């Protein structure tokens, strides 16, 4: 399995960001599964999962990794071909679909911040700031030739952010996202 890939092809990004396929890829990140296992977990019809898996397989994002007998019926087991997939920031501008996908993720981060006591005063700024963080790390991560596990990639991304971030943007973030306790 390849550790990292930065995807910039709008068609592949659209494929990845579709809700059911995105969930399938997240599940396959933890272990390889059969179509019936995915169907059961996602509470979707087997034929629906099959169609999504075939699209992901055609795009080279999943592959058959083995076979398992389920109720004495052999089933193919599918796994991811790439452990970590980054969406290239330049693709956000070209596609409204991708922007909506990233906005959904920004909303989840905003809700998590709210849950732990932070308030986001300017949602548009916050969404753009998260995209900015992706931009300042992807160019360097794209240069990697070594295999790294997810935890090390996450730490590398954090260090790259600290090394490359514009301090004025941090000050602006502090003004627009703060804890009411401070």
What would you say this structure looks like, in words?
The protein has nine helices and seven strands; from the N terminus they run βααβααβββααβαααβ. It has 182 residues and is an alpha+beta fold. It has two domains: 82 residues, Arc Repressor Mutant, subunit A (Orthogonal Bundle), CATH 1.10.10.10; 91 residues, no CATH class. The strands form three sheets. The chain has a three-stranded antiparallel β-sheet with strand order 2-4-3. The protein has a two-stranded parallel ribbon with strand order 1-5. The protein has a two-stranded antiparallel sheet with strand order 6-7. Strand 3 and strand 4 form a beta hairpin. It is globular and about 60 Å long.
Keywords, separated by commas or semicolons:
single chain, alpha+beta, 2 domains, three-stranded antiparallel sheet, two-stranded parallel sheet, Arc Repressor Mutant, subunit A, 182 residues
